[in-house]
Amino acid sequence: MVHLLRRLGSHWKRSLPEPLLLQISPATSTATAASPSYHLLSLLKQCSNLKHLHQTHCFMLSRGLDQDNILLSRFIDACSSLGFSHYCLSIFTRHKNPPDIYLFNTIIKALSNSEFSILSIRIYNRILACGLRFDSYTLPFALNAVVRLLAIHVGRQIHGQAIGTGLVCDVHVVTALIQMYSSFGCISEARQLFDGACFRDVAFWNAMVAGYAKLGDVDNARHLFEQMPERNVISWTAVISGYAQMDRPNEAISIFRRMQLEEVEPDEIAMLASLSACAQLGALELGEWIHNYIDKHGLSKIVPLNNALIDMYAKSGKIEKALQVFKNMKHKSIITWTSMIDGLASHGLGREAFEMFSCMERNRIKPNEITFMAILSACNHVGWVEMGRWYFENMGTKYGIHPKIEHYGCMIDLLGRAGFLQEAQELVEGMPFEANAPIWGSLLAAARIHGDAELGERALQHLIKVEPHNSGNYTLLSNIYATQSKWNEAGIVRKAMRDTGVKKMPGGSCIEVNSEVHEFVADDKSHLQSERIYEVLWKINLQSKMAMHVRMEHVEMLESNKESGYILNSICV
Predict the structure, then answer these.
(1) Which tens digit of pLDDT belongs to each residue from 447-460?
(2) Chain mean position to CA 350
(3) Which of 86, 171, 278, 571 could form a disulfide with 287, with the two C-beta atoms 3.0–4.6 Å apart?
């Protein structure tokens, strides 16, 4: 702590060449000399670090301004906005005058989203004991602490107090209650409050829409969204994020495009969700539009947006543009480095991925669990088994990260693809987790690559238990038998698939045309231009057959000419 304070002190000296109080212009000082409170508010607007706060606090103490609850509340709010919640608590506990409801609300708000959130509930409980009454700000601030503490029983008690005091009729209080119940998954209680409210503003609607979206019920979220009499950027963002979260990228992009048409400026979260959807679909044109929007509006310094751009470009096949975004970033997080390593690995650039990892270590960035998944994936893409073994075995000893089931899955997949089937099976048997569907799926795929029917049978037996309706598992084992000409066994697998009611999932693909993503599924005719599409496909198929026929005739002629030449040569000899 002492070392940290020294570092902070040196930072303050560099960032503050003159004391804060001396930076106020003479005109301002003259104008506010008769009004210390106005002078204080001017200082609070300039505070940007702890030293500024200390100077301002001294200014308050020397003039007795700390005895004014409203001015003290403003000071505590400034401390909170800069992240110094411990300082807020210290000031409040040393305050001698009885707090009013305004000061109580300010300290509850300041502590509710900090490590002292439990204290905000204790302070909340003091309000009635002091002979004061809650107002429409008190309960929402306390409910923020309830969510952070995961204390729904406290939230229900506050709900009861809202009913007892009549504040349950206040739209801000009901909005906070809806958010609280939604956070705990109690969506029916949240909806009951929503349906019973008389007055609904846009924030109230947003709370219910976001509640459904966060729980994955995007259809109900969309239904409410369409009924909203008024929407703002938060309304659009909630639905876009909900679709992206539930792996429904087409709908996410569709809503984002509607948002553009209605000239609603997207916020950071909307762009993050939309870039995630673009990455899933490979919707490069929309991703580039968002990138241009970020640059145009001066948002290129926001690290999460750059991380999303790197991921989008890498998954859309533009690894050079991903590298360009990476190189232009002045500040990089561990997610930045991991996204770039993963992108290089997925493009088969294993050597470059490892160079990026080494560069990350030279920059003293500590890898996390996801980084090691990217590294093991890089080993898998280029088939570096020994390198994969080394990283897997040294995760705990060198980097202090204990392998999770996902890391075992990466390593098992690496060994299986490389043909180390016995080692892969031993790793499955020895790991401290029960093998899940992806792990057994990796073994089944490895059995398919290397023609190991026995391993394939074993893997399928386990897969039937964990994902009985996945047709791909049956198909893989059937193909293993087919490649070994075991037609009877292949038929038995197909019959078992039919008997259990497992249907083969049709294949699908996406294509982006004129900034619009079109999705196609085998034998699907729901597209508006399906007749024209099938007509073109029929012509392509016909031309392919004709080309194949011509090629076969050409090959037969060559074979015939070779044979004739052989006969002529024999006669000549």
Answers:
(1) 888 888 888 878 87
(2) 25
(3) 278
